[in-house]
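seq:
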Amino acid sequence: MRLFSTADLIADIDYFRLLTQTDINRANMHRIIVSDIFGRTSALEKIAEALPGDVDIFDPYDTKHMGFSNEAEAYACFSSEVGLDTYTDKLSKKVAAQSKQIDLLGFSVGASAIWKISNQEESKNVSSALCFYGSQIRDHIDITPIFPVRLFSLRLNHIF
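struct:
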């Protein structure tokens, strides 16, 4: 099992491409990157540029670069201004509005939001999802996804 962080993914972009492209026919697939509490960042934009096909970034702050100075600031803003339920509802609407098959790629709270919509009828046009470090998934283990979901997490997480 390979363990990595978002920074490792950016550093090893060829491995990341391999994870997100299961076969040659998926190279033109539409993908949506679902961000963490930091929202749209240059790191996510770098990932989006490196992926094949049409790639959008979905974030909790409606594409605004927030420029948080630390995780505590990002968490406080996300918790008070958005929250997981609102983020999940917005993602569900975005996914339902897609006219073609899509792949989802989520980080942290974005992964948790993907997991929460993975059993909804509105997600029928999702082909697959990769979810990295979705810590809130543990609170929703009763969900049975209607599309393939690959979960990546830490082997040990001393916080929980």
